[in-house]
TrEMBL record:
Belongs to the UPF0173 family. SUPFAM superfamilies: Metallo-hydrolase/oxidoreductase. It holds the Pfam family Lactamase_B_3. GO terms for molecular function: hydrolase activity. It comes from the Bacteria. Keywords: Hydrolase. HAMAP family: UPF0173. Residues 8-191 form the Metallo-beta-lactamase domain. The keyword Hydrolase applies. InterPro entries: Metallo-B-lactamas, RibonucZ/Hydroxyglut_hydro, UPF0173, UPF0173_UPF0282_UlaG_hydrolase. This is UPF0173 metal-dependent hydrolase ACFFIP_17990. The lineage of its organism: Bacteria, Pseudomonadati, Bacteroidota, Cytophagia, Cytophagales.
Length: 227
């Protein structure tokens, strides 16, 4: 079982055993997450899917507050190293690394990636995390892609963090197809309702998921669940 806490937008804390992994922390600039105190977040690892501000805003603070390990693609890892992050691990598409909480594979995403100061964020990606008690997919920001079928062929995915906000990423209907491709019935929704561009009808999204035989998990900011 995996414990998940939602911090808004695409930001999650995932507990695997005694390790805590933060994904794409965009918390302090998000007015909808104003009740979350970034300084109190405990993390052993921070994983970043790409370089956009709405995915990396609080990464430096969380890493430095906890002496955590930052994991991302090469360009992003080096960019943070130049900002004084001492513990980092660079990856690139198709590569895997075994950490003390499990195995991480950096997989393809179809999006863009520019860091807050305009520097190149390299190629965007997602993560497949395989650990002692299960396996999940964090898609990052992405379009639907046939590459997701390769994930389903290689891994038994228990659940997937998928964007559903449309406009900049997949919408709910493509997210449902993505869940089919990776072989899971459970979608943990992300990247929706934070900004006007990605505001969606949540009731319609729920109906679409139910009709397709999927469980669409829509967490409140600050809420924790176990999957």
């Amino acid at each position: 079982m995996t414990e998940i806490t939602y911090y808004g937008h695409s930001s999650f804390l995932v507990k695997i055993g005694d390790k805590q992994i933060v994904f794409d922390p965009f918390i302090s600039p998000n007015t909808k997450a104003s009740h979350i105190d970034v300084s109190k977040i405990k993390a052993d690892y921070v994983l970043l899917s790409h370089g956009h501000e709405d995915h990396v805003a609080d990464a430096e603070a969380i890493v430095k507050n906890n002496n955590a390990m930052l994991v991302s693609n090469y360009e992003i890892a080096v960019w943070f190293a130049e900002k004084g992050v001492e513990k980092y691990h660079p990856m690139n598409h198709g590569g895997s690394k075994i950490f003390d909480f499990g195995k991480v594979k950096y997989v393809n995403a179809v999006h863009s990636s520019t860091l807050p100061d305009g520097a190149s964020g390299g190629n965007p990606g997602g993560f497949v995390i395989k650990h002692a008690h299960g396996c999940f997919y964090y898609a990052g920001d992405t379009a639907l892609t046939y590459d997701m079928k390769l994930i389903g062929e290689e891994f038994k995915i228990d659940f997937a963090f998928l964007p559903i906000g449309d406009n900049f990423t997949m919408g709910i209907h493509d997210a449902i197809k993505a869940a089919d491709f990776v072989g899971t019935k459970k979608i943990v929704a992300m990247h929706f309702d934070t900004f006007p561009y990605i505001e969606i009808d949540l009731d319609d999204a729920k109906k679409a998921a139910t009709k397709a035989g999927k469980e669409l998990i829509l967490l409140n900011i600050g809420e924790s669940i176990t999957l």
